[in-house]
Structures are given as structure tokens and as C-alpha cells.
Amino acid sequence: MLIVTYDFSNNKIRTKFHKFLKKYGHPLQYSVFEIKNSPRILNIIMLEIEKVYKPKFTLADSILIIPISLADTHKIRRYGYSVQEEKELIWFD
Q: Which of 5, 53, 64, 68 is least crowded, fewest Cβ atoms below 10 Å from its Cβ?
């Protein structure tokens, strides 16, 4: 699992990056995403950052990628809305 957090001073770039990350994970907060990763997903994200976003960085912009090993996921404590993120939904018609 990855936690990706970001801050861009430019609203347009921030919104574009948010939409990009939604393809691979879900937001925990507006600028914090949880991504169930694989080496392929991580490579896609890092390539996109390097090619598209890093050239547009100002001194006020940042992206932080935090890997969390499967062995450590049981240590995560969730409260409030984020508790629902771990539950599987089953729909019946």
C-alpha cells in the first residue's frame, strides 16, 4: 500500500493531480490518497510525476509517497469515515 500526499500552489495542477490519483486509489482527505500498489502502479505514478508534474514544481509544491508494507497494514488505526474504507460492500439486487 502507498500513501500519497501532495500540495500544489496552482489550483489547476492540484485538481489535475487529484484526478490522476483517483484512477489508482481513493482519497482519504483531499490531498491524501491510499493506493493499493503493485510495482507497475508505482512505476506509472512515478513516471507521471517525473514527466508531467515535476517540471511544473514551484518552491511551494510537494509530493510525498509513503510505502506501507503488507506486514504493517494491520497497525493502521482508522477512525471516523475512514473505518468504512476497509469494509467490503456487497450489493444484492
A: 64
User: In the chain, what's the furthest Cα-to-Cα distance?
Assistant: 52
> How many residues does the structure list for the chain?
93
**Residues with Cβ < 8 Å from 7, sequence gap 6 or more?**
14, 31, 60, 61, 62
Q: Report the number of distinct structural domains present in the chain.
A: 1
Is 44 inside any structural domain? yes
CA 55 to chain centre: 20
Could you tell me if 78 and 1 are in contact, meaning their C-beta atoms sit under 8 angstroms apart?
no
Our measurement of the distance from residue 75's CA atom to the centroid of its chain's CA atoms, rounded to an integer in Å, reads 19
Residue 92 located in a structural domain: no
Residue 62's domain spans which residues?
A: 2-86
